[in-house]
Design brief:
The protein is of the alpha+beta class and 139 residues long. It has four helices and six strands; from the N terminus they run βαββααβββα. The longest helix has 22 residues.
Length: 139
């Protein structure tokens, strides 16, 4: 992702596991976004957290050292997931074991550059309607 460009970005939990169903794990994502925003690294325009993925419309403003903010986001939240699961749900943590480490986020998240206002509005509407669509599927 390029700096100073707006993207529709989706990152998914490995194997579509519903890790983000619990409030505390969603809160980890929100706190990470707040931290990156407060440091002036990102600007968030819209987001939705679903049970197994997150959609964001955001802009990368600056790197976090040598790392882009999207990498910092997934790395930091994965660290929080691992820490909490190792203490509170060690059996669930094992579901995310991959050889010698743990993987929570699928590699290569979807990143679509937003080129114009029409696409931006379409993606914001998609984000706003995603929980409604999900509920229709689940019921």
């Amino acid at each position: 992702m390029d700096l100073n460009e707006v993207y529709f970005w989706t990152s998914t939990i490995i194997s579509w596991k519903h890790l983000l169903k619990q409030d505390k794990y969603r809160q980890f994502l929100i706190e990470s976004l707040q931290y990156l925003t407060s440091r002036g690294l990102i600007r968030v325009y819209s987001f939705v957290i679903m049970p197994n993925h997150i959609h964001l419309i955001w802009e990368m403003l600056s790197t976090n050292g040598k790392e882009k903010p999207d990498s910092s986001f997934t790395k930091f939240t994965a660290h929080l997931f691992k820490k909490d699961l190792s203490i509170n749900h060690p059996k669930v943590l094992e579901v995310f074991r991959s050889d010698i480490f743990y993987e929570f986020w699928k590699r290569d998240p979807l990143a679509i550059k937003i080129f114009d206002k029409e696409i931006l509005i379409q993606k914001i509407n998609y984000i706003h309607n995603n929980p409604i669509s999900e509920n229709r599927i689940l019921h």
